[in-house]
TrEMBL record:
Keyword Iron-sulfur: no
Cofactor note: Binds 1 Mg(2+) ion per subunit.
Summary of the function given for this chain in its UniProt record: Pyrophosphatase that catalyzes the hydrolysis of nucleoside triphosphates to their monophosphate derivatives, with a high preference for the non-canonical purine nucleotides XTP (xanthosine triphosphate), dITP (deoxyinosine triphosphate) and ITP. Seems to function as a house-cleaning enzyme that removes non-canonical purine nucleotides from the nucleotide pool, thus preventing their incorporation into DNA/RNA and avoiding chromosomal lesions.
UniProt-recorded name of the protein: dITP/XTP pyrophosphatase
Binding site for Mg(2+): E39, D68
UniProt entry tagged with the keyword Hydrolase: yes
Organism of origin: Caldisericum exile (strain DSM 21853 / NBRC 104410 / AZM16c01)
Residues that bind substrate: T8, K9, N10, K11, G12, K13, S69, F151, G152, Y153, D154, K174, H179, R180
Family: Belongs to the HAM1 NTPase family.
Catalytic activity: XTP + H2O = XMP + diphosphate + H(+); dITP + H2O = dIMP + diphosphate + H(+); ITP + H2O = IMP + diphosphate + H(+)
Cofactors: Mg(2+)
GO molecular function list: dITP diphosphatase activity; ITP diphosphatase activity; metal ion binding; nucleotide binding; ribonucleoside triphosphate phosphatase activity; XTP diphosphatase activity
Quaternary structure and interacting proteins, as annotated: Homodimer.
InterPro entries: dITP/XTP_pyrophosphatase, ITPase-like_fam, RdgB/HAM1
Amino acid sequence: MVKILVATKNKGKLKEIQEILGDLPIKLMPLPESASDVEENGSTYLENALIKAKTYGQKYKLITLADDSGLEIDALNGLPGIYSSRYLGKDTPFEEKMKNILELMKNKDNRKARFRCISVLYFPNEDKFVSFEGVVEGEILKEICYGNSGFGYDPIFKPDGFDKSFSELGTEIKNKISHRSKALAQVRDYIENNLLGGEMIEIKINGKRLPANKYVYSVFEKVIYAILSTLKDLPEIETVEIKIEKKEEK
Ligand SMILES: O=c1nc[nH]c2c1ncn2[C@H]1C[C@H](O)[C@@H](COP(=O)(O)OP(=O)(O)OP(=O)(O)O)O1
Ligand SMILES: [Mg+2]
């Protein structure tokens, strides 16, 4: 089975990556607790993601997934941005970082902000990588709104189209719309198309891909076909496409 090292020291990030890619037939390996820190001194998200992916990928000789991400606030000229983790010091609690940001934003009308994530998949044998970007637009709230989930700046960020913070919305919604899930959707496609062999099944309804893949489908194949044959008779369903593609084992 393909093994992929998830090169993050952030438990919240690790959990999200495991939830988003967990249904793929690959083994996601967390970093050992003993793994040393790396200095993220790049000047772009991509450079920082590559520093993490290459350092740990070469050390543990595994295909490695890393991301570098940040919160960009328009009224603060894009800060904290790539400094999101280091903002006010790496070990300063996020509560303090968020209070400081809310203070700076006190009289600002423009509350537009976005989370950006650059995900990198690094192949140590060939010293090659692929990278993917995901962005979620939103606003900075007027106060810290803690919910039951999330990490980092989630309690002060409200994604567009919702009226609660990422932290209050919960992991399931966050993982459908977040910067990280958008970058990882492309990582998923890359893995399915390039690292996995066998038969690939993709189901699209009205042109939209069903949020599951063949490893889910294969378990419920008969049920899924029965549901699809009913669905296609509903007026709001314009097209149901099922693509089955034989792939060479890689
Ligand atoms: O979904 C998110 N929800 C809330 N906050 C977030 C998110 N995504 C990034 N952020 C903030 C916090 C983090 O500290 C920084 C990224 O810094 P970044 O270096 O990519 O991650 P990190 O230092 O926490 O872990 P690691 O480098 O080991 O993967 O931006
Ligand atoms: Mg970091």
